[in-house]
Amino acid sequence: xxxxxxxxxxxxxxxxxxxxxxxxxxxxxxxxxxxxxxxxxxxxxxxxxxxxxxxxxxxxxxxxxxxxxxxxxxxxxxxxxxxxxxxxxxxxxxxxxxxxxxxxxxxxxxxxxxxxxxxxxxxxxxxxxxxxxxxxxxxxxxxxxxxxxxxxxxxxxxxxxxxxxxxxxxxxxxxxxxxxxxxxxxxxxxxxxxxxxxxxxxxxxxxxxxxxxxxxxxxxxxxxxxxxxxxxxxxxxxxxxxxxxxxxxxxxxxxxxxxxxxxxxxxxxxxxxxxxxxxxxxxxxxxxxxxxxxxxxxxxxxxxxxxxxxxxxxxxxxxxxxxxxxxxxxxxxxxxxxxxxxxxxxxxxxxxxxxxxxxxxxxxxxxxxxxxxxxxxxxxxxxxxxxxxxxxxxxx
Length: 396
Description:
By secondary structure, this protein is an alpha+beta fold. It folds into 2 domains: 2-94 and 226-391, DD-peptidase/beta-lactamase superfamily (Beta-lactamase), CATH 3.40.710; 99-208, no CATH class. The chain is 34% helix and 14% strand. The chain is built from 12 helices and 13 strands. Strands 3-2-1-13-12-11 form a 6-stranded antiparallel β-sheet, sandwiched between helices. Strands 4-8-7 form a 3-stranded antiparallel β-sheet. A two-stranded antiparallel ribbon has the order 5-6. Helix 2 runs antiparallel to helix 12 (379-391), helix 3 packs parallel to helix 7 (194-208) and helix 3 (94-109) crosses helix 8. The radius of gyration is 20 Å and the shape is globular.
């Protein structure tokens, strides 16, 4: 009984500290609550099939939370712990959008970088792409990193890096990325790469003089009062974290990022992964973006910056990626009904966010599908949930 009271008290303080959005019934924002139950069934079916242990679904519409629901369990090994709407998740690659990309755009607004600046302006040792036959070279630019068209390889072998460098060793990792052979000429091929956003991290840190964690805290998380969003969560937040994979020694990975490069080489603070957050905090961030960069008098980005972030740049249309987000690349998972203006991102651990400015709606689906063991992908579930939510909109 004491444990239950303790958890209730933590939950109350959790809600009180943050800048949570008003919670309303779906009908108050033009949505059909009964139709939203189709999303419930899709999620429950995935739980029954063992694809995920549990999930949290949040729907934002017109600056309000129209739906917030927890399903299943956040932990099934070694004990079973029920999922709650306050559960904090390892966002995996969703970190690229909600932290790294927004941080880069804040620096752009301040005149401290340009999209078409060469990466080597900020990381002098960073090598261009060079044609091995003709010797022709082409510099990699910041816009190429943001749109995953830099030509950098998708990933790097952590085992290989451990042979070359200490762990963690962010400097060693950047030295490796700076010289690793490029797969393609920049701006010619879409090749999704975690190395792009680790490079962006170093650019942000070199310009700002602070870690990505500190920059994101000061300029995104703290102003928005996203009190349970951070890298390397600790303290009270750690108690809310959903575990991910079971380790070789039988222990659970909890509060430490699942992504190997972020975990081993970057010590948990990484441009490609590492942010932990919960549905309510992400609702605030999504509402800010839907409101052209401002919420409750707090402005994070200008309206034109938000528009640029969700728009595929001229000349990059065939790739379908905007500045740190996915619009219509093969990786996009925003369902079948949202308008072409919808954008979002997914994460390996089982997380997804879709934002549709046309209808003023955001869909946030958080799972820890890699717990206790790495399970089959759930990309189909992302699409189904986004579609059922979109179908529940009855008043535009």
